[in-house]
């Protein structure tokens, strides 16, 4: 059963300006070490696109959690990782994980689904939260 959905469209130029203006202060505050390492393996617009997609994923996840960035849900508590196949996934910690736990009905487990894309100058992410029977 679907218990949350969220979508976000991000202007890549906005992320580029934030990186230019605030540099590491912005990157360290918003993105996990894994996210920074993945994005920084790229150059130019591909690097900006990687950051913008992850920004959009965090925003979409906060919407799917139903809180936005409040009640302990911060950019830093939502992480985007990739499976060996390349499929993006979300990892929640702290307040984001706690919020997910309150959403999932008893006897069920929460599963997060993430899809991301970019086409300059935009990045888009969609998150669905599914409750499935616990094994």
TrEMBL record:
Mg(2+) binds at residues 8, 59. Keywords: Cytoplasm, Fatty acid biosynthesis, Fatty acid metabolism, Lipid biosynthesis, Lipid metabolism, Magnesium, Metal-binding, Transferase. SUPFAM superfamilies: 4'-phosphopantetheinyl transferase. InterPro entries: 4-PPantetheinyl_Trfase_dom, 4-PPantetheinyl_Trfase_dom_sf, ACPS, Ppantetheine-prot_Trfase_dom. One of its GO terms (molecular function) is holo-[acyl-carrier-protein] synthase activity. It catalyses: apo-[ACP] + CoA = holo-[ACP] + adenosine 3',5'-bisphosphate + H(+). Its cofactor is Mg(2+). The keyword Transcription does not apply. Its main location: cytoplasm. It is found in: Cytoplasm. The keyword Lipid metabolism applies. Belongs to the P-Pant transferase superfamily. AcpS family. This is Holo-[acyl-carrier-protein] synthase. It comes from Acetobacter conturbans.
